[in-house]
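As the work plan foresaw, our protein records have gained a structure token line. A representative record is set out beneath this paragraph:
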Amino acid sequence: MKIKIATRQSELAMYQANFVANEIKKSIKDVEVELIPMTSEGDQTNKPLHEIGGKGLFISTLESALESNKVDIAVHSLKDVPARLDPKFKIINVFKRESPSDLLLSKDGKSFSDFLENATIGTSGPRRKAQINYLRPDIKTIPVRGNIATRINKLNEGYFDGLVVAKAAINRLGLQQNSYEFSIDEMLPAASQGHIATECLSSNKEIIETLESIGDSKELILANAERSFVASMDGGCLSPIAILCQNFNDEIKVIGKVLSYKGDKLIYKKMNSSFKDIDKDIISFADEFILEGAKSLISE
């Protein structure tokens, strides 16, 4: 059996695709795996994502390859996949989560509170920008695009005083950077930040049956719950919505935040759930946010 994997061409995307390829080869005998690197629409522009269609641009080319049967699966950072997935596609599995945290890189690795008044921080999305503005309205955030290496080069060249990136990306690439790790209370992650996912056509029963046992079934439940929270508020990858579901001895602890884009307003809640109840509990949790005006907040 041969499995073709669509992936973006960045160093991080190739790492993730190779990781999945190795997991497949470890689990399935006599399988051949081929990576098909592609350039996505999102990779071909430096414009802010909210101006060009959001993070879905990073997966559209890969999904087109699935539809045309050029590949069998696509590998994504799950946080880049829209919370409402087209029914034509299916997330087969996710793997053990890397750290969901965000890092604040700087030349000396100082803490967030030690940044000087009116300092500048590079960040790639409204969720991070809103949380920075909520805690430190004196700090100026600067939009930054490009792969991890490009962003770090801009930091080193003095475009800004600090740079926020996902800890998972730094860990996976094995980079050594002076940094401060935000606490979860300071910077709650995006839905499914740190999760690698595989996607296929919903109609491809053979590949689903072949691969659905690979990965981490409990992590998939947590990832789906986080994505359901975002979808319930009609949010997307670029909405100032943050959500984290963590497993502590089969008790699921959930933290959610919804902010205005300016970061001057916040709804913040916690709850406990279980693997048995999380699907319904996460909807009720989202409904509490909606009752307090979350949908209006993310449009401000």
Remarks:
- The mean pLDDT is 93.
